[in-house]
Backbone:
């Protein structure tokens, strides 16, 4: 399938840079020959032109680490996605769509000497709908004489056109300044975090045993002094060595401070829970296994999912567990926590320390899933087989086609599927189930977005 070929084998290496940071992503979009690659080279400060690439050959790399004025970002060059020369124009909108789905901001390049075409208008509509910040680059303005051509592009309704000569470097500084003004500090596609120990939130409703568990964990191994390289931490965060590695338990002050159980305190406790989850990469939700599960337990689990953090569910007070209670607990888990069957489960006792050592392997499994990236090639091979074996059910004689898919981000894994029509929710869940069966993802929420091509 041609559409699949478009992205086949192209791994959007957005994890470029290796560290825990999620750099903002800038996509360069525009028709062929407007000078996208030339501009990318200019931004990257490279002499050698990517332009020399043979037409019809897909470059296997589309994202590059870039820097301007001391700010780092990831640059996505859609020029490399052109797989065949015939019918390229029709592809531009599609490519822009994918790029926009992945980007935090977009540079839209127009050849000012040529002006705009229908394709440009189409891309502009798409860019507007996306709500992402867009900077308009009026390229090939090699001298002052061309500035009038650039001014015409105000009519696109994308704001100020920046006259640029990507070839000679004229105006690219102003363009980059304008880009940095609109580019967010960190990517919406991931969690920007400092390098260093992984961050854990220990959460759960009052009295499930959070402070007991924290004391147990801190007591188990010596508390690491606060001079580990690369750790800047809040005084309310606690650095704890577990399994021979340092971990940061975030917002522990809230756990240690005993608050009276008034309704007001409950409100603040739940705000604190949310804040802790936001600051963490992975959450351990403690549940009191010895008493009936409550709505509040389910809500905390849901907050972790909504925040897109990795998850471990720990059933505490197992020392109080008796054989009568056991079947009730299992039924509660089945009924109330069915949406997180993928989360590792650990039965523990903060009082005796029983199974506390099982928390670390569970945290590591969840984080590994949270970090997982499936290459576009593998993903589309998987989807191709799935769709062939289990096509989407017919709807009014029609059937939405899946064109291609890509993993837009990690932490947590987010997928975007491009289709010709809306997918039934049941079919979407089916895809998620199969994704999990095939690739694992134990302990991490995953999201699947569907983009319908008009
Ligand atoms: P892409 O297909 O959008 O990536 O465009 P390229 O970067 O491959 O550029 C297409 C052609 O336009 C090449 O021959 C470039 O040398 C030329 N070009 C790119 N930028 C400029 C510019 O600012 N001024 C002039 N005169 N030519 C340019
Ligand atoms: P928090 O409000 O979540 O921080 O809960 P605490 O750690 O203060 O624990 C609430 C109560 O449950 C205290 O009386 C603890 O001693 C008790 N508790 C905590 N963990 C366990 C456990 O594993 N077993 C038993 N039997 N009691 C526990």
Residues:
């Amino acid at each position: 399938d041609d559409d699949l070929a478009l992205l086949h084998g192209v791994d959007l290496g957005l994890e470029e840079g290796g560290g825990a940071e999620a750099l903002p992503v800038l996509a360069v979009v525009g028709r062929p020959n407007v000078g996208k690659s030339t501009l990318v080279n200019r931004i990257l400060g490279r002499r050698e032109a990517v332009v020399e690439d043979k037409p019809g050959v897909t470059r296997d790399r589309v994202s590059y680490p870039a820097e301007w004025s001391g700010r780092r970002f990831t640059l996505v060059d859609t020029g490399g996605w052109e797989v065949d020369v015939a019918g390229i124009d029709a592809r531009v909108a599609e490519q822009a769509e994918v790029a926009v789905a992945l980007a935090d901001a977009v540079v839209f390049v127009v050849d000012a000497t040529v002006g705009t075409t229908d394709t440009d208008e189409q891309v502009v509509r798409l860019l507007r709908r996306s709500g992402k910040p867009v900077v308009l680059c009026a390229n090939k303005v090699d001298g002052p004489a061309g500035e009038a051509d650039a001014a015409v592009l105000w009519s696109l309704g994308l704001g100020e056109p920046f006259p640029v000569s990507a070839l000679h470097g004229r105006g690219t500084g102003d363009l980059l300044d304008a880009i940095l003004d609109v580019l967010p500090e960190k990517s919406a596609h991931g969690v920007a975090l400092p390098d260093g120990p992984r961050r854990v939130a220990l959460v759960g409703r009052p009295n499930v045993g959070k402070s007991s568990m924290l004391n147990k964990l801190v007591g188990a191994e010596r508390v690491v002094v606060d001079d580990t390289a690369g750790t800047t931490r809040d005084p309310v965060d606690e650095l704890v060595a577990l399994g021979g590695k340092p971990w940061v338990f975030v917002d522990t002050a809230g756990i240690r401070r005993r608050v009276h159980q008034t309704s007001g305190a409950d409100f603040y406790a739940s705000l604190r829970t949310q804040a802790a989850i936001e600051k963490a990469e992975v959450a351990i939700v403690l549940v009191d296994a010895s008493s009936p599960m409550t709505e509040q337990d389910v809500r905390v689990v849901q907050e972790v999912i909504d925040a897109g953090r990795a998850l471990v569910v720990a059933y505490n007070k197992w020392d109080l567990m008796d054989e009568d209670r056991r079947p009730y607990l299992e039924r509660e888990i089945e009924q109330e926590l069915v949406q997180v069957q993928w989360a590792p489960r650990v039965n523990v006792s903060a009082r005796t320390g029983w199974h506390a050592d099982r928390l670390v392997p569970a945290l590591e499994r969840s984080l590994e899933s949270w970090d997982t990236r499936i290459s576009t090639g593998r993903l589309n091979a998987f989807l191709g087989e799935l769709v062939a074996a289990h096509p989407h059910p017919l709807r009014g004689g029609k059937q939405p086609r899946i064109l291609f898919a890509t993993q837009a981000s990690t932490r947590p894994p987010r997928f975007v599927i491009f289709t010709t029509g809306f997918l039934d929710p049941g079919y979407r869940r089916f895809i998620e189930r199969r994704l999990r069966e095939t690739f694992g993802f134990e302990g991490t929420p995953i999201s699947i977005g569907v983009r319908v091509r008009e």
